[in-house]
Amino acid sequence: MTRTLCLAAVLVAGLALPAIAADTDKTDTPQVVAQEGPATQKPFTMIDAQNLLRQRGYTNVSELVKNEKGTWIGSAVKDGKTVPVGVDVKGNVIERPVM
To answer: Which residue in 73, 77, 75, 76 sits closest to 89, CA to CA?
Structure first.
């Protein structure tokens, strides 16, 4: 009987050790995860904004002026009409932006 109890204790301990060892590999330090967003993105330059407008089909893109929100504003031709345009900090093209 004693022999059976000892064997059972050894088996239980043998099965529990790998589970305990697996838990000790984990660390409690939080991992830093990179996030995309305006704070981590390279800011648009006027040239970047002009090129984006050209890629979207606008021609005769004027010089652009940055407003207080960081939107590049100017004018360009689309479908034969001159329209006011803007490119916001996320790269969205806006027709008729507010100064």
So the answer is: 73
72-78 sheet: strands from edge to edge: 65-66, 72-78, 81-87, 93-95
Query: Which carries the bigger pLDDT value, residue 14 or residue 73?
Result: 73
Scanning the structure block, which residue is given the tokens 């004018």?
Answer: 75
Phi, psi of 74 (to 5 degrees): -170, -150
Question: In this structure, what are the phi and psi dihedrals at residue 66, rounded to the nearest 5 degrees?
Answer: -90, 130
pLDDT single digits (tens) 33-47: 333 444 445 677 999
User: Tens digits of per-residue pLDDT, 16-25?
Assistant: 555 555 555 5
The helix/strand/coil state of 21 is helix
